[in-house]
User: Which sequence fits this backbone?
């Protein structure tokens, strides 16, 4: 075991010390307001334009990188040192999804007995450009004060802002659910309740959290027709997290209306929460800079209990004009008072904006999966 650990450590150290041409390549982050940050290139050297968002998690960077909800975005990690335990077997999907990765300091000599490589090599493998050496505190303050904005990561030193800024303003994430959903349905076998999970960009731990509780989980692609799901007569339906503007998912919303009418118990997370709200006449809007991290407090309005939650979203459900005969607020964010969940009136349906499956993040609200199983009649 000792020799295996030493072998992995020296492999990681050797890979981390690789350099292009003997020195690190310059890279630039250009924001649509004209602000330019200079750093060093990590990962791929290709140029990319994306929406720039920040994540406040102190650990769990691999789970962040492999969360499909980051498709169409470049992620700024606010914690100053990233990569100190390297790449480990903690992926939430089969590949990373962000368009770019921005850090203050990248650990190029990771040390962990589970280390299988470095972030640098991981980003190169999946052709994801990144930049290190950026003042991420200053960058995050800009995004908080001015709101989320588009940006470009480039290694070209002779760029002209007047040519780049119009391109940044024109960038639109578009419909990205199609990019992240599974191609065909698959199953996680269990002897308990049968759950149909609609994959809008689902993190692995959602299906695993259900399967660990005995559920037989069938995962369906995002655009599966409601009729196909209902004819299988599942005991419950799960709507997953996912990327992008929920209002772009028009055909999915139409199918969710049919699922809502079926009276089968439904539990929805993040994007699924927003889509269920839109399917029932509520509205959503884009937040100034969103909630992304593992330290967001949410309050259960029924019990008064406060959970520390994992979150990753840039849109929120409006509850100001919510019809109480359809749904009522179930959770709110303690920091800013935004909606964090809905309970549907006269239905076995509840939805949350945060991530009870965590990964990364606290497990405070994992009991919501048990609540869903109880809605289906329990596993007895």
Assistant:
């Amino acid at each position: 075991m000792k020799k295996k650990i030493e072998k992995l450590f020296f492999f990681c150290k050797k890979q981390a010390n690789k350099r292009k041409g003997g020195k690190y390549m310059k890279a630039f982050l250009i924001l649509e307001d004209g602000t330019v940050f200079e750093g060093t290139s990590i990962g791929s050297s290709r140029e990319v334009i994306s929406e720039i968002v920040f994540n406040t998690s102190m650990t769990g960077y691999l789970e962040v990188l492999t969360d499909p909800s980051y498709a169409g975005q470049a992620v700024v990690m606010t914690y100053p040192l990233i990569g100190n335990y390297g790449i480990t077997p903690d992926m939430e999907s089969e590949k990373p999804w962000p368009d770019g990765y921005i850090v203050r300091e990248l650990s190029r000599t990771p040390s962990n007995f589970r280390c299988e490589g470095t972030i640098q090599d991981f980003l190169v493998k999946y052709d994801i450009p990144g930049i290190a050496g950026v003042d991420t505190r200053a960058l995050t303050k800009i995004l908080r004060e001015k709101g989320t904005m588009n940006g470009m990561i480039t290694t070209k030193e002779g760029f002209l802002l007047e040519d780049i800024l119009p391109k940044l303003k024109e960038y639109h994430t578009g419909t990205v659910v199609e990019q992240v959903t599974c191609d065909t349905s698959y199953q996680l076998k269990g002897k308990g309740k049968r759950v149909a999970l609609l994959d809008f960009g689902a993190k692995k731990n959602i299906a695993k959290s259900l399967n660990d509780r005995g559920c037989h989980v069938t995962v369906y692609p995002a655009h599966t027709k409601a009729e196909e799901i209902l004819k299988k007569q599942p005991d419950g339906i799960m709507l997953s997290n996912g990327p992008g503007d929920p209002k772009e998912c028009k055909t999915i919303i139409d199918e969710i209306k049919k699922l809502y009418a079926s009276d089968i118990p439904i539990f929805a997370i993040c994007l699924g929460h927003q889509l269920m709200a839109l399917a029932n006449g509520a509205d959503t809007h884009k937040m100034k800079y969103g909630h992304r991290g593992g330290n967001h407090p949410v309050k259960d309005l029924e019990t008064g209990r406060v959970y520390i939650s994992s979150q990753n979203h840039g849109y929120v459900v409006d509850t100001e004009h919510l019809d109480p005969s359809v749904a009522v607020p179930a959770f709110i964010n303690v920091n800013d008072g935004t909606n964090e969940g809905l309970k549907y009136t006269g239905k076995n349906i509840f939805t949350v904006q945060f991530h009870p499956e965590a990964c990364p993040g606290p497990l405070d609200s994992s009991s919501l999966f048990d609540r869903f199983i109880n809605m289906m009649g329990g596993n007895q």
Remarks:
- Confidence is low (pLDDT under 50) at residues 1-22.
- Residues 142 and 157 are 23 Å apart (CA to CA).
- The chain is about 25% helix and 30% strand.
